[in-house]
Amino acid sequence: MTQLITTLAPAPRLRIWLGGLLVAVGAWLGAYLHLEDFADTMLAATGLDRGSRFSDAAHFFLYDTPKVLLLLTAIVFLVGVIQTFFSPERTRALLSGKRVGVGNVLAATLGIVTPFCSCSAVPLFIGFLSAGVPLGVTFSFLISAPMVNEVALVLLFGMFGWKVAALYLFMGLAVAMVSGFVIGKLKMERYLEDWVRAIQAGETQSVDGNAMSWVERFETGLGHVREIVGKVWPYVLAGIALGAGIHGYVPEDFMASIMGKDAPWWSVPIAVMIGVPMYTNAAGIIPVVEALIGKGAALGTVLAFMMSVIALSAPEMIILRKVLKPTLIATFAGVVATGILIVGYVFNAVL
């Protein structure tokens, strides 16, 4: 009996790890659930009053920086632990599917239920790549997660009815699936940064996952956090800083003047080009969409603008630069922009 209890009892190192993880999870949840309070407190400490453009930009930065870094740390750690159970080859086989495009469908569908903005989706995108998930599949998730989510659907349904919400859902998923499929077919893995390719190839870990203890798995996850977060965090700060600056100075009146229902055909690509440098999530951009519609802008043009803001933001590109080479970033932006243009023209034609 004593031998059985000793066998079942966790080893001292494992007890330390479990206790530390319990404390870390509690601290993580406490921090994540009070991000708004943290941003408000920090802003109040500076003496700035809410309502000015500069204070709105500062609040955005103070809120989004810890949010993205918390998500990045948690997701990279979890993926690092999970990866110890699966080799890159097995992960690819599981998530890519037997038939062409199945992985893209699954990844795009997963993106609907993940409430991430474009920058927040990047950590899971990096985790997928690190776990060996095919490039095209990861892009389907990266596009779908910010572009199509339950918040946007509910708000669109409430403001414009179920037909607009359903068409938005269908077209957004189509853009994510087709874009990821096309990028996957282009075989552009060589344009991943070398450190990502090394992780995908298994060069950073040669331990047999079946023989690893839980302590070794946790240590592997922590190692992933140190390696990946340590490389990416400056890009996260730079991207959010840019997004915060633009977030505080959104020129709604100017955009409405070139997005009107009687605007020429080039209003849709202009709207996409204007939207790319901006950064917010779907819930944040919906009030802007409502304001633009109220000022006479065409629905398809405005939705193309919205999709470019939440799926092709400049801050997202800055963060992705640490993971992707410029050629792949340009291809990603071009393929997704083409899909968004089609969405805009279809909405303007049928509504």
What does this 3D model show about the protein?
- The structure is a single chain.
- Residues 1-9 and 203-207 have low confidence and may be disordered.
- The radius of gyration is 22 Å and the shape is globular.
- It has 18 helices and no strands.
- It is mainly alpha-helical.
- It has helices at 2-8, 12-33, 35-45, 53-83, 88-96, 102-112, 118-130, 135-147, 150-160, 162-185, 194-200, 214-247, 252-257, 267-275, 282-294, 299-311, 314-320, 326-350.
- Helix 9 runs antiparallel to helix 10 (162-185) and helix 14 runs parallel beside helix 16 (299-311).
- It has a domain at 87-203 and 228-236 and 249-350.
- The protein starts with a helix and ends with a helix.
- pLDDT < 50 runs, ≥5 residues: 1-9, 203-207
> Averaging pLDDT over every residue, what do you get?
75
Tally of helical segments: 18
What is the structural class?
mainly alpha
SSE run: HHHHHHHHHHHHHHHHHH
List the helices and strands and how they pair.
Layout: H1 2-8, H2 12-33, H3 35-45, H4 53-83, H5 88-96, H6 102-112, H7 118-130, H8 135-147, H9 150-160, H10 162-185, H11 194-200, H12 214-247, H13 252-257, H14 267-275, H15 282-294, H16 299-311, H17 314-320, H18 326-350
Helix pairs in contact: 3-4, 4-7, 4-12, 6-8, 6-10, 7-8, 8-10, 9-10, 9-15, 10-18, 12-17, 14-16, 15-16, 16-18
